[in-house]
Amino acid sequence: MIEFTLNGEAVSIETDPLRRLLDVLREDFELKGPKEGCGEGECGACAVLLDGKLVNSCLVPIGAIAKREITTIEGYRHTRRHAVLAESFSEEGAVQCGICTPGMIMAAEALLSEHPEPTAEQIKEGLSGNLCRCTGYNMIVRAVARAAEKGKGLW
Amino acid sequence: MNLSHSVPRVDAIEKSEATTQYIADMEFAGMLYARTLRADRPRAKILTIDIPPLPAGYYIIDHNDVPGKNRIKMLIYDWPFFAEDVVNHVGEPILLVVGPDRDELETLLSRIVVHYADSAPILSIEEARRGSLPPIYGEDNCFAKYEIVKGDPEGAFAGAARIVESEHRTGYQEHVYIEPQGFVGLVEKGNKITVYGSMQCPYYVKNALIEGLGCAPEKVRVVQTTTGGAFGGKEEYPSLIAGHVAFAALKTGRPVQLLFDRSEDIAATTKRHPSVFRYRTALDAEGCIRGMDVEIDLDGGAYAGLSSVVLQRAIFAATGIYRVDNLRVSGRVLATNTVPTGAFRGFGAPQAFFAIEMHMERIAGELGLDPLEFKMSHALKQGDETSTGGYIWQAVKLPEMVEQLERMSGYTRKRAEIKQRGNAGNLPLRGIGLSLFFHGCGFTGNAEQAIIKGRATLSKLPGEKVEILVSSAEMGQGCQTTLRKIVAHALDIPLDNVIYANPDTDRVPDSGPTVASRTVMVVGRLLERAAAEMKSRWDTEETFSVTTAYRQPEWVKWDQDTLKGDAYPTYSWGANVVEVEIDPLTLETDIRGAWGVYDVGVPIDERIVLGQIEGGMVQGLGYATIEVMNMKQGHILQNSLTDYIIPTVKDVPPIESSLVANPYEDGPFGAKGAGELPLVGAAPALAAAVQHALGLPVADIPVTPEYLLRLLEQTSLK
After folding, report:
1. pTM
2. Which residues pair with A41 in a beta bridge?
3. Nearest chain A CA: its distance from B102 CA (Å)
4. Which of B22, B54, B245, B367 is the residue whose CA sits 20 to 30 A from A145?
5. Could you report the per-residue pLDDT of A103-139, keeping only the tens digit for each?
6. Does domain A80-150 have CATH number 1.10.150.120?
């Protein structure tokens, strides 16, 4: 039995401890926000927060998260911080096909919690594990900068 | 309200909240899963297949389970849904294993043994040219061959004061949409087959299923799910996957899901055609171009797919934005025992524009002329004849665009500075390059009128709402927003009153595929016309529908047999500058800046067009630099995102772009195509910059450090 906190709630699951966190989230908890883009930790579409730090859920075996805390986009999207990020993403044109967007938003949250007033370089560093094939990235970088500005005090 | 001013994308917030359903997120009661057994050799006969005993509830689906024709209908019937007795490329599907447990499917898959008798494969353009092995296709092993001739090319070469030649090669490019391909198929009541999936062209899929299932059109329904990137990669290949899930659903009576993992997606789906372009140009004593001869070979892979149309676009783009009065262009698509190549943003034009721009740089270099001046002195103007004997009907704003580009990038000033300072010592080598390009908007020639025959419907619903019924698919490019804007603007109603669901072939007419930069210009125009009629009846009728059909602009004249006339009704234009620094020790290229000026007519939404520009330029810069794909014995060596590298946020330079307005009379509110154009000019500008930095003629892309090292070695050997 693996017990952990998922989006603020205590949960437990009886399963093979080597299963990928991504599969457990999508199949057992029906959380479809984390997406599988590559299955090898290159694209970041499956990114979630593990104890507040950004991880690729395709690389984490479920057994490794006992007693720890997972936040997915589904847990995050009700927050004021998410609203500011979503609005900024929209205003800067940072969303196109949308498949990378949940992962990008989680990466932005991780980066803004560490650097509430990030430099452009810090934003790039924070998003460097997430691939986007549509936007060319600069619009996403500007969206995160805008969110930091608009959401002053939130992070 | 100014139409071009940006509005919030209608899908941005839900995508940020992850409430948008992609194909992998859809669940159906009793759904089974499928995995594909693929050929692991490039050319072989299948002798026998050993299949282990299957547990209850597991199935094998192969060519015997295809009720209709085991061929995907694109242009010709050559591409099988499942291999029969031969395989022609690594990754070709042989059969599916279907069942309820995915781990069990992997186990079963690993225990199936295929016995082959290998034949000698044709693995590259060079091997195909040699022609020493039995053909894969037809008698001459060419999927397509065309030639266009204009004026008197032989006379031009006979009287030339000087002839300049160059040869250019381009490599594979993988689309890397972040959402891998996938479909779910199910049998609905009345034995109707329905497929849901990630795709660009619902009616291509429907037509392929009608043939594969051998059934009536009303027995097939195709529903597009919001598509996580496509770039042409979900134009033809989805028809094959849709067939697989349809055949599996038919056999099992259950919903069947087939999702590709990334390595499978890279190994099996289409890519951009590798190419070889050979140029010869005849110059007069003043250094003016008198004639040009171009030979093009494209690597089509094992099946034809859309390759013949890709070749046509490459041929029509082979003279770039330049006027050449005496011309011969010939081209072939060669069959090889490699993964089939196909549609990819630009569709033959990125290869051609890279080649012609580098050839023009080469000529300017040999003549000791400034490349920009040389190029502009040969640029097409309004009223000029095109390479196919059609005309440039609309205004050409290139001089204004170049002026703007100069102001933004400082191209000429920086070139002079670099020349003065010189590139010496251990400092990074600086260089700056420029490209000029266009993209023919919409389908080639008269295909919109002769083949596609697009239709669009607008329905007025109770409560002053209006529904858009078209087969155009949202894949990130923003058509959910832009088409709504066109309708709302034409009817003068709020954007929120316009409904536009993902296309379902049971509900929408065939407006054509979501390809060729045609959605806004062609489908948007159909909707604009429907809205105009709706407006005239708005106050007197409560609920009604208006359907419009495509009408070819009256100036378009085209003969598909001779390839003469107006290859495109109009063109979108672009000019790019790229600045680089090259480390003299590692030969790594650092892109310092990229600039672009574009004429897309009138933008329907400035921010969405900016998104196309930035995303397209970065995809083009990736194509030119880091996106390397090689084959070894027909196997792709880079079949993961660890090995096939695309740009990350850290690889992207600052990009500055602007638009020059040039309203097009047959586009909605003056709009032309914008989706493909921004990719087309990035590679030649980058390569010209690298050439400038090194002082060596760059002939090929991708421009990797290994390639540059070879260039330097070749030069020092001379």
Report:
1. 0.98
2. none
3. 12
4. B22
5. 999 999 999 999 999 999 999 999 999 999 999 999 9
6. yes
